[in-house]
Amino acid sequence: MTTHAYQPGQTWVIKVGSSLLTSNGEGLDLKLVGAWVDDIVAVYRSGIQVVLVSSGAVAEGMKRLGIHTRPRALHLLQAAAAVGQMGLIQAYESEFKRHKLHTAQILLTHDDLRSRERYINARSTLRSLLALGVIPVVNENDTVVTDEIRFGDNDTLAALVANLIEAHTLLLLTDQDGFFESDPRQNPNAQLIAEAAAGDPRLDGMAGEGGKLGRGGMVTKLRAARTAARSGANTIVAPGRSPGVIADLAKGRYRGTLLRSQNGVMVARKQWLAGLTTSGRLVLDKGAVEVLRKSGRSLLPVGVKSVEGSFTRGSMVACVDEQGLDVARGLVNYSAQEAAAICGQPSSKIEALLGYGGEDELIHRDNLVVG
Known about the structure:
Radius of gyration: 22 Å
Order of helices and strands: EEHHEHHEHHEHEEHEHEEHEHEEEHHE
Strand content: 15-25%
Mean pLDDT: 88
Distance between the termini: 35 Å
CATH architecture of the largest domain: 3-Layer(aba) Sandwich
Number of helices: 13
Number of domains: 2
Largest sheet: 8 strands, mixed
Shape: globular
CATH superfamily of the largest domain: Acetylglutamate kinase-like
Low-confidence stretches: 210-216
Structural class: alpha/beta
Helix content: 25-40%
């Protein structure tokens, strides 16, 4: 398979998906796990810091429990994850132990990155582990999350971890050769995309859905690449079963698809904000869109045309243009009901409209992420 030149930097997040990790859906492919670990160890010993984000707990748990179809009921998924997590971590611990390296299990939920305090704690823990020469193995805490707060796929989790530790490269290992212009399973002549900007809108129509074991198809990989790009990280979607794919990357050559970030590295608070789940939307007029994109100023009520969703003061909301396209996101200073009452009005009228005074800004620029 053709390789391309790329300098991946000194901090990586590597994500391994369920469909790749399991042996024809029958538990973990331990031989493949060993090969990846050998490569990761070589990368680590070359001076590169690595955080591993691994799926596979539910699939391993299904095998151990004799379940052949992914459960729909949340409590059964959580039970399978609880059983399978034992085997998943045991496999990684055993393989890294061959190289006399320690591993650490990190289980995260979206709440851990929604809270500013817990976000900082998670980042400090990961950085401390890396400084101690430990390989962190991260997974979503499937045993406690609910549908409302779960990441939904480990591609998203890996991207948020890349934001968290300010990684240079997010490597998404998959059972595909990379990102194609069309689905190669349906079109044998589909062309592999070697490199593109993560934000290129043409990529949206090229993404497909995941398989029966994994939840993350190319749709989620594209979304993850765009999330990682917010903190300046580039994403590589690569064939995980291709021998030496990790080791080659350390030598400055990649296989698959490179989705480049076009943004500079954000300050830590902006990275945190970019990873939060939105609770509603503010529809902006053309003037407000231009001000946010070109001037980086705060969002005032006068620039908002309408309010969608139900949210409270301090919630994360999306800011969209009149066509519904994302412009920014930020922590709002008013509830949905209050925002609806003052939208389209100058800040000088806030007290008269609400019956009490408040902030002049609907979202302050320090709490706003544009793009």
